[in-house]
Give the backbone structure.
Amino acid sequence: MTDLRFVPLLPDSELPTGRMRACTVDGREVLLCRARDGLHAVDNICTHAFARLDEGRIRGTKLQCPLHGAVFDVRDGRVLKGPATEPLPVHHVRVVAGQVEIALDPAAPPPPKAG
Ligand code: FES
């Protein structure tokens, strides 16, 4: 089993419910979301084409891409509405001593590239 390497990102108090924050972890663009059920971390790049999901919107646990409107569930990354067909990679998130920390999923496939 691979050891996860958690990286501290921001104070837990800085991300209210219903908000998102884009960040970069080990060179990967990640989107931290606080849904009604808690914190989630997913790739910030849509799996359909190159679009940053922090420019879209989140409602409940549904994250909508700003480019063609695909919808993902931030809890498990599954596609709820196309045109995307591939799930969004989901990363590990925890809160330690008031700090939100993320660890990348070592099995996550690379996101689409720009251009
Ligand atoms: S780039 Fe996200 S739905 Fe097309």
Summary: Strands lie at 7-11, 20-25, 28-35, 38-43, 57-59, 62-64, 71-73, 79-81, 90-96, 99-103. The domain at 7-103 is CATH 2.102.10.10 (Rieske Iron-sulfur Protein).
